[in-house]
Design brief:
about 40% helix; 5-stranded mixed sheet; about 140 residues; 5 helices; 5 strands; alpha/beta
Length: about 140
């Protein structure tokens, strides 16, 4: 499996490495969203720096973007950071953002340290979920 998830206090750090397929991207997304800690996430960082090959199609990017709608309605308090320098992956992320399915802040950085600095500078997000819904 060419990804690793590290759960942190308030967030998750996903690291892709080696050859990453569309199916593996989907599995990493599903693993994050299915985890009981998802509802308390405040940030996600996805690190692409060790990717050797990354399978990209416009249709797959659109599908994965659309899959974010329901989880981000469930937890709208997440800010999203990508750590990437590969121009193809950056273009796919821009396509993802441009589709407009995600209203949460989403930024691209060249280093994990810069991503973490940006996350730390974000104002607290309000939880618009009704108080009667379980957390």
């Amino acid at each position: 499996m060419p990804f690793e998830l590290t759960w942190e206090h308030g967030g998750v750090y996903r690291r892709y490495f080696g050859r990453v397929t569309i199916d593996e991207r989907r599995r990493s997304f599903d693993a994050i969203c299915a985890d009981p800690r998802f509802d308390d996430l405040q940030y996600t960082i996805t690190d692409y720096l060790e990717v050797e090959r990354y399978e990209i199609t416009r249709d797959a990017t659109a599908e994965i973007a659309a899959l974010h709608i329901a989880p981000l309605l469930t937890n709208p308090n997440i800010v999203i950071a990508a750590v990437v320098v590969d121009e193809r992956i950056i273009a796919a992320i821009h396509q993802f953002i441009g589709l407009g399915f995600v209203s949460q802040p989403y930024r691209i950085f060249a280093t994990a340290a810069a991503a973490r600095d940006w996350i730390a500078a974000q104002p607290p997000r309000l939880d618009p979920r009704p108080p009667h819904l379980p957390r």
